[in-house]
């Protein structure tokens, strides 16, 4: 396994950060949905 100078895992342009941010926002939205269901805010 080789290390690159930037310290990132991949150097494929600007792909990893928007992809990672999109998944983080999706999981956060699901988390709030489950929390709202748990606290009986939605039925």
Task: Summarize it.
This protein has 43 residues and is mostly helical. The protein is 53% helix and 0% strand.
Roughly how many Å is the radius of gyration? 17 Å
Cα(first) to Cα(last) distance is: 50 Å
**Which shape, going by the Cα principal axes?**
rod-shaped
Sequence of secondary-structure elements: H
The largest pleated sheet is described as: none
Structural class based on helices, strands and sheet pairing: mainly alpha
Query: Any low-confidence stretches, pLDDT <50, length ≥5?
Result: none
Strand content: under 5%
Protein name: Photosystem I protein PsaX
Pfam family, one: PsaX
Keywords: Membrane, Transmembrane, Transmembrane helix
InterPro entries: PSI_PsaX, PSI_PsaX_sf
Keywords:
43 residues, mainly alpha, 53% helix
Question: Could you please describe the fold and organization of this structure?
Answer:
It holds the Pfam family PsaX. This protein is rod-shaped. The model has no long low-confidence stretch (mean pLDDT 79). 0% of the residues are buried. The chain is mainly α and 43 residues long. The chain has one helix at residues 16-38.
């Amino acid at each position: 396994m080789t290390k690159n100078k930037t310290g990132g895992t991949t150097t494929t342009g600007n792909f990893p950060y928007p992809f990672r941010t999109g998944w983080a926002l999706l999981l956060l939205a699901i988390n709030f949905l489950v929390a709202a269901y748990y606290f009986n805010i939605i039925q």
